[in-house]
Write a structure and sequence with these properties.
Blueprint lengths: L1 E8 L6 E7 L17 E7 L11 H6 L3 E7 L2 H13 L6 E3 L5 H6 L7 H16 L3 H5 L2 E2 L2 E2 L1 E2 L3 E9 H6 L8 H12 L17 H9 L4 E2 L2 E2 L4 H15 L12 H9 L5 E5 L3 H7 L6 E4 L14 E4 L2 E3 L6 H11 L2 H10 L12 H6 L3 H8 L3 E2 L6 H17 L5 H17 L1
Parallel strand pairs: 3-4, 3-5, 14-16
Antiparallel strand pairs: 1-2, 1-4, 5-15, 6-7, 8-15, 9-12, 9-13, 9-14, 10-11
Helix pairs in contact: 4-12, 9-16, 9-17, 16-17
Length: about 425
C-alpha cells in the first residue's frame, strides 16, 4: 500500500489535507470533495511538493471564485506512467507536471492536448506576461512545433570549479574540455580529485548528455548521435579521466550525491552541478572567492556547436482537461513572477526572466544575474517515445568507456549507436 498526500484548496479557505491509501503505483483519483454547483474544478498533479507556490492558490481563488483547484503530489519519476494509467480510466488530472523527456510518450498516447488556442488568447489578453517566459519555457513543453503546456522551471547543469585553487595554481577558467583536463591534471598533482563525474547507473544519463550537447552533440528525431565527432570525443574524455586518474577510483559506484559531496566537501576541483545545488554549495564554500560557475566549456574546434542543455518539468494540459479559459487562468497564476520567484529562490530556477532581475531573488542567489543571459539561451534535452530504453544504452556506453579506457572510443560509439538505432527502428 502506498500513501499519497492530497490537498484541496478551495477559495481562500484554509488548506485541507487528507491522506489517501491506494494500491500499486497508479494514482487514479481526482478530487472527491463536493464542488459547488457552477464551479469549475481543476486538478493539478505537481511533480514535487516544492513546486507548489507558498501562496497555495489563495490569491487565485480570491480572484477566481468560480474555479476550485485541487492538487496532488505525484513524484516526477512516476508521473508519466500514472497519467497514462489514469487517462485509460478517464480519471486523468487537468494539468500534470512531468519531466520534459516524458512529453513524447504522452503525445504518442494522445494523453495531452494542443494549447495553441489557449496561448493565443493569453497573448491577446496579456502579451507582456507571456513574453516574460523564456523561449525554453515554451519549447520544452512543445513537440514538433505543437505546444502542450508551459515549462516554468528548468534545471541546467553549470560547469562549477574551485576558483581559489585555479587562481593559486595560476590557471585560467577553462574554455574547452581540453582545458578542463589540463586543470584536472594540475589539481591532481596537488592531491585532489581533478574532475568529479557520475559513473553509476543510479540516474538517467542527463549529466552525460549535458556534456555531450556542450561538446556539440546532435540528435536526430530525438535520438542522440553518439557515433559522431562529439560522441567519440565525449567517450574519450571519460576514458582519459580514468586512464590518468583524474577522477575517483570508485567512479563506477558514484551517483549524484557522491559527485556533489566530493565538490562541496573540498575534495574535487571541477564538476557539472545543477543550479539548484548552488545554495547548498554556498553554505560551505563562498561564491566568488572559493567557487564559481560558468556555462559548460566547448569541444575544441566546435565552439559554434556548443549548447547548454537543460532539464525541465513542464505543466502539461491533458486531453480531457477543463475548458481553456479556466486552464489559462491557472497557468497564468503559476507563471506570475512572485510565484515563480518564490519557488525558484528555495528550489529549482524558473524560466520567467523578470525573476532574475528582482532584488529578492538576487539576495538569495547572488550569482543569478551572472547566469541570466545563459538562461535565455538554454536548449531543452530532446525527447523520444523510447527515451527510457535509449538511456539504458547510453549508460552502457558511458560505463564501457569508464571500464575500458584503452579501447578505441570510436568502437564504443559505433557499437552503442547501432544498438540505439536498432531499438528505435523496431
Amino acid at each position: 500500500m502506498k500513501q499519497f498526500r492530497k490537498t484541496t484548496f478551495a477559495g481562500s479557505a484554509q488548506a485541507l489535507a487528507c491522506a489517501t491509501f491506494l494500491s500499486g503505483t497508479a494514482v487514479l483519483g481526482a478530487a472527491t470533495g463536493a464542488v459547488a454547483q457552477g464551479t469549475t474544478e481543476i486538478t493539478i498533479w505537481f511533480g514535487r511538493e516544492n513546486f507548489i507556490p507558498a501562496d497555495a492558490f489563495d490569491t487565485f481563488h480570491a480572484e477566481n471564485p468560480g474555479i476550485e483547484v485541487t492538487t496532488d503530489v505525484i513524484p516526477l519519476e512516476q508521473a508519466v506512467a500514472d497519467t497514462l494509467r489514469a487517462a485509460r480510466a478517464d480519471r486523468a488530472p487537468d494539468i500534470v507536471q512531468v519531466p520534459a523527456d516524458g512529453l513524447a510518450p504522452l503525445v504518442a498516447q494522445n494523453a495531452v492536448r494542443d494549447i495553441s488556442g489557449l496561448l493565443d488568447e493569453w497573448r491577446s489578453e496579456d502579451a507582456a506576461s507571456l513574453d516574460d517566459i523564456s523561449t525554453v519555457g515554451l519549447d520544452m513543453a512543445s513537440l514538433d512545433g505543437t505546444p502542450y503546456g508551459l515549462t516554468l522551471y528548468a534545471g541546467p547543469f553549470w560547469y562549477t570549479y574551485r576558483k581559489d585553487w585555479l587562481e593559486a595554481a595560476g590557471l585560467d577558467v577553462p574554455q574547452t574540455w581540453d582545458d578542463v583536463l589540463d586543470v584536472a591534471r594540475a589539481i591532481k598533482d596537488e592531491g585532489h580529485i581533478g574532475y568529479a563525474v557520475i559513473g553509476s547507473r543510479a540516474h538517467d544519463p542527463v549529466w552525460f548528455l549535458s556534456t555531450f550537447m556542450a561538446m556539440g552533440g546532435q540528435f536526430e528525431g530525438g535520438v542522440p548521435q553518439i557515433e559522431s565527432d562529439a560522441g567519440r570525443y565525449l567517450l574519450g574524455f571519460y576514458q582519459t579521466l580514468v586512464a590518468e586518474g583524474l577522477t575517483s577510483q570508485d567512479v563506477l559506484a558514484w551517483d549524484s550525491g557522491a559527485m556533489r559531496s566530493s565538490f562541496i566537501g573540498g575534495n574535487a576541483a571541477q564538476a557539472m552541478l545543477g543550479d539548484n545545488i548552488y545554495p547548498t554549495l554556498n553554505e560551505t564554500l563562498t561564491w566568488g572567492e572559493e567557487w564559481d560557475g560558468a556555462r559548460p566549456p566547448a569541444r575544441p574546434g566546435a565552439e559554434d556547436a556548443a549548447r547548454t542543455m537543460t532539464l525541465g518539468w513542464p505543466f502539461l494540459v491533458t486531453t480531457g482537461a477543463a475548458e481553456d479559459d479556466a486552464i489559462r487562468k491557472v497557468l497564468q497564476y503559476l507563471a506570475r513572477p512572485e510565484n515563480v520567484g518564490e519557488v525558484s529562490a528555495r528550489y529549482q530556477p524558473g524560466t520567467v526572466l523578470s525573476v532574475f532581475e528582482s532584488e529578492e531573488y538576487n539576495t538569495v542567489k547572488p550569482w543569478a544575474s551572472q547566469f541570466a543571459p545563459e538562461f535565455a539561451n538554454l536548449t531543452p534535452l530532446p525527447t523520444h517515445p523510447r527515451q527510457s530504453q535509449i538511456y539504458q544504452i547510453l549508460l552502457d556506453a558511458m560505463q564501457a568507456a569508464l571500464q575500458n579506457p584503452e579501447q578505441d572510443a570510436a568502437e564504443i560509439a559505433a557499437t552503442h549507436q547501432a544498438a540505439i538505432d536498432q531499438l528505435v527502428a523496431d
